[in-house]
Write a structure and sequence with these properties.
- It is a single chain.
- It contains 13 helices and 18 strands.
- By secondary structure, it is α+β, with helices and mostly antiparallel strands.
- The chain has a single domain, classed as LCP protein (Aminopeptidase), CATH 3.40.630.
- It has a six-stranded mixed sheet, sandwiched between helices. It has a two-stranded antiparallel sheet with strand order 1-2.
- A hairpin with a 4-residue loop joins strand 4 and strand 5.
- It is globular and about 50 Å long.
- It starts with 5 loop residues before the first strand and ends in a 6-residue tail after the last helix.
- Pfam families: LytR_cpsA_psr (PF03816).
- Belongs to the LytR/CpsA/Psr (LCP) family.
- This is LytR family transcriptional regulator.
């Protein structure tokens, strides 16, 4: 099918980095796509202190997108949830390069607008997409220009919609929530794909390994969407995203991205931001080394055409140096973890609903709840 006949959809929006590049085709599909995009569009009233003016996608300016996987929408979960998958994508069309960085959900950081220091993934639970955006922007010292969120059902349905994705499961066969994921080179459907992206406990690298698999799943989905060359799957893709995705990217944004930014999606650097695991008052956190954080901030700012911010070089918002020296009494934050969670060995209290969930039947799972992506 000739290029001029192709109309983009992008709902995952970039997701999936290119879900900015959903390829739908024809007049009928254009109508369906625009309808779906209007349904997932959700603007947020916010102002970035790191940009004097909003980014101009039509002018091919570098921009960033916050991608969030929300731990609700499936497995009987209907609450607002938390952003247990958090990625930031920077897209630079002039350099024809994109960077996708995963942020550990347990990073101890300031929750902007909530007056607390807490785990990064709690920002969404406390204040939705706006608080999550503001918190990540402050942590990485970059503007967050747009966001895309997708819940667990959306990810599962999207994998099915593109006909599954192929991976090489080098971890060996494992089971999560009753779903068996075989070892070796396999094709994942929605159920097994969601399990593959969510599993943590049987990965020797823990949450770092899980985030690596999440980036893999995202890139596999994007590649499948970009490669579609027919009408057969577009309706399933639209159905997968319409009730499970929210974004502040407009239809015009998505069309401009597809026309002017696609070469940048063919060169993606994958990064990981994590720290040193530490328990504070019996609660697990990741403390970021300020030097490494500054290096990450500088790299991302460069991708966005911004100069390094040397004022951030000496900043240590997590008391990392105190903790590294064993001085746990130095903690000056006001984490609400101890009020949101019950760490009884046989119970887990959801921070959004206060409802006891007996799913977590051991102390490790209570302290390190694995109820997200």
């Amino acid at each position: 099918m000739k290029l001029w006949k192709k109309v983009i959809l992008t709902v995952l929006g970039l997701v999936l980095i290119s879900v900015a590049g959903f390829c739908a085709y024809g007049i009928k599909m254009y109508s369906d796509a625009t309808y779906t995009v209007k349904g997932v569009y959700e603007s947020i009233d916010r102002t970035s202190k790191r940009r004097e003016a909003a980014v101009n996608i039509d002018a091919q300016e570098p921009f960033s997108v916050l991608l969030m996987g929300i731990d609700t929408g499936d497995l009987g979960r209907t609450e607002q949830g938390r952003s247990d998958t958090t990625m930031v994508v920077t897209i630079n069309p002039k350099e024809k390069k994109s960077t996708m960085i995963s942020l550990d959900r347990d990073i101890l950081t300031e929750i902007v607008g909530n007056g607390t220091e807490d785990k990064l993934n709690h920002a969404y639970a406390f204040g939705g997409a706006k608080m999550a955006i503001d918190t990540v922007s402050e942590l990485l010292d970059i503007p967050i220009d747009n966001y895309v969120s997708i819940n667990m059902k959306g990810l599962k349905d999207l994998i099915d919609a593109v006909g599954g994705i192929e991976v090489d499961n080098t971890l060996g066969e494992f089971t999560l929530d009753g779903i068996v994921v075989p070892a070796g080179k396999i094709t994942l459907d929605g159920e097994t794909g969601l399990a593959y992206a969510r599993m943590r406990k049987e990965d020797p690298d823990g949450d770092i390994g899980r985030q690596r698999r999440q980036r893999e799943v995202v890139e596999k989905i994007v590649n499948k969407i970009i490669s579609l060359d027919g009408l057969t799957k577009y309706r399933k893709i639209l159905d997968a995203v319409k009730d499970n995705v929210k974004t502040d990217l407009t239809w015009d944004n998505m069309v401009d991205i597809q026309k002017k930014y696609m070469p940048a999606f063919k060169n993606i650097d994958s990064l990981q931001l994590d720290g040193e695991g530490t328990e504070i008052d019996s609660i697990y956190y990741q403390l970021l080394d300020p030097t490494k954080l500054y290096e990450t901030q500088t790299e991302l700012r460069a991708q966005l055409g911004m100069a390094k911010n040397e004022e951030m070089q000496a900043r240590d918002t997590s008391n990392y140096n105190n903790y590294a020296g064993g001085n746990t009494a130095a903690y000056g934050g006001t984490s609400t973890d101890t009020t949101n969670y019950s760490y009884d060995p046989n119970t887990y209290v959801d921070p959004n609903t206060g409802v006891v969930d007996s799913t977590y039947t051991n102390q490790e799972e209570a302290v390190y709840p694995d109820n997200g992506y």
